C-alpha cells in the first residue's frame, strides 16, 4: 500500500507498506530534472498492526528538586524564546555539563535544556501539558525518552506515550518540528537483555514517527564498539554519556538539525 503524506513543489512524502514493513519515503525534485529518493524512517515486521498503549500524565511535584527545575524550565521557556528545546531525562539534562560540545558542533544559539533526571515518558507528558508550551514556540524539539520506562512499561506504552507527547507539542505549537530520537543502547555488553527490548521499542518508535510525520533518528550504533559493547569511553555507567558520548551525539544531530532549520 502506498499512502501519500504530503505533496508540494519540493517533492513527495509517502508511507509505503510492503507486506509487514512500513517505510517513510521522500522523493525530492532535483535541479537536473531527476528525482532523489530517501528513506527517513522505517519500522520492521508487524509495526503497522501494533496497537499502541497510552500513559497517564504524572507529576513528580512531591519531589521539591524536580518541581523547582520544572518551574525554572517553564520560566526560561517563556522568557527566552528558544529556537531549539532539548526534551528528555538525565541523558538530555547532561548537555548542561557539555554545552561547549554543543556550541562547537551544532551552533544553535537559543537552546533550552528541558531535560530532568529520572523522568519517564509520563512525567515528560505532564510537563508538556503543564506550562512548558504555554508561550514557547520552538522551531525544533529534540525528544528522547523511554530509558527510565524499560523496567515498568511495555514497548507499546513507551511508544504510545511518546506519541502522546508529540501530539501535545503539536497541539500547543503546530509549527514546531519534532526530531524524535531512538533510545540509546544501555548495558556495557552486547548481550545485555536491555538491548533487545530497546531494539524492539525503537522499531516501534520508527513506525510511529512515520505515521506522525516527524523525523526519527536512531543513532545508537554510533555509540557502540565493533563488538557491540558500550565502552566506558562513551558511557561511564552503561547508560549516561561521557564527553566523548556527547560529541558523538552532537555529530549525529548536526545534519538533521541543519536540515530542519532550513525547512
Question: In brief, what are we looking at here?
Answer:
The protein has 263 residues and is an alpha/beta fold. The chain has seven helices and nine strands, in the order ββββαβααβαβαβαβα.
> Main β-sheet, in a few words?
5 strands, parallel
* Strand order in space, largest sheet: 6-5-7-8-9
Shape: globular
Mean pLDDT reading: 86
The CATH class of the largest domain, by name, is: Alpha Beta
Strand tally: 9
- CATH topology-level name of the largest domain: Rossmann fold
Estimate the helix proportion, in percent.
Answer: 25-40%
Stretches with pLDDT under 50, minimum 5 residues: 1-49
As a percent range, the share of strand residues is 15-25%
* Helix/strand order, N-terminal first: EEEEHEHHEHEHEHEH
Structural class: alpha/beta
- Through-space gap between termini: 28 Å
CATH architecture of the largest domain: 3-Layer(aba) Sandwich
Q: What is the alpha-carbon Rg in Å?
A: 18 Å
Total tally of structural domains? 2
Quickly count the helices.
7
> How would you name the CATH homologous superfamily of the largest domain?
SGNH hydrolase
Please write out the topology:
Layout: E1 2-8, E2 11-18, E3 21-29, E4 35-43, H1 64-80, E5 84-88, H2 90-93, H3 99-105, E6 111-115, H4 121-132, E7 140-144, H5 155-172, E8 177-181, H6 193-212, E9 215-217, H7 243-261
Parallel strand pairs: 5-6, 5-7, 7-8, 8-9
Antiparallel strand pairs: 1-2, 2-3, 3-4
Helix pairs in contact: 4-5, 5-6
Amino acid at each position: 500500500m502506498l499512502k501519500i503524506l504530503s505533496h508540494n513543489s519540493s517533492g513527495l512524502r509517502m508511507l509505503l507498506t510492503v507486506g509487514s514493513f512500513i517505510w517513510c519515503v521522500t522523493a525530492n525534485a532535483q535541479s537536473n530534472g531527476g528525482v532523489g529518493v530517501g528513506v527517513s524512517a522505517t519500522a520492521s515486521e508487524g509495526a503497522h498492526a501494533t496497537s499502541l498503549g497510552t500513559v497517564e500524565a504524572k507529576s513528580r511535584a512531591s519531589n521539591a528538586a524536580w518541581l523547582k527545575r520544572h518551574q525554572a524550565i517553564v520560566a526560561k521557556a517563556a522568557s527566552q524564546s528558544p529556537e531549539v528545546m532539548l526534551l528528555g531525562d538525565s541523558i538530555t539534562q547532561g548537555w548542561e555539563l557539555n554545552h561547549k560540545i554543543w556550541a562547537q558542533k551544532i551552533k544553535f544559539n537559543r537552546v533550552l535544556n528541558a531535560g530532568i533526571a529520572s523522568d519517564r515518558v509520563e512525567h515528560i507528558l505532564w510537563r508538556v501539558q503543564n506550562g512548558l508550551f504555554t508561550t514557547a514556540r520552538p522551531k525544533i524539539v529534540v525528544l528522547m525518552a523511554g530509558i527510565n520506562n524499560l523496567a515498568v512499561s511495555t514497548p507499546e506504552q513507551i511508544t504510545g506515550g511518546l506519541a502522546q507527547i508529540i501530539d501535545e507539542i503539536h497541539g500547543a505549537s503546530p509549527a514546531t518540528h519534532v526530531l524524535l530520537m531512538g533510545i540509546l543502547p544501555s548495558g556495557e555488553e552486547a548481550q545485555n537483555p536491555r538491548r533487545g527490548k530497546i531494539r524492539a521499542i525503537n522499531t516501534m518508535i520508527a513506525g510511529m514517527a512515520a505515521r506522525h510525520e516527524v523525523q526519527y533518528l536512531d543513532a545508537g550504533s554510533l555509540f557502540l564498539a565493533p563488538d557491540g559493547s558500550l565502552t566506558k569511553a562513551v558511557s561511564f555507567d552503561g547508560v549516561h554519556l561521557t564527553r566523548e558520548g556527547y560529541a558523538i551525539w552532537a555529530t549525529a544531530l548536526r545534519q538533521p538539525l541543519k536540515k530542519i532549520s532550513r525547512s
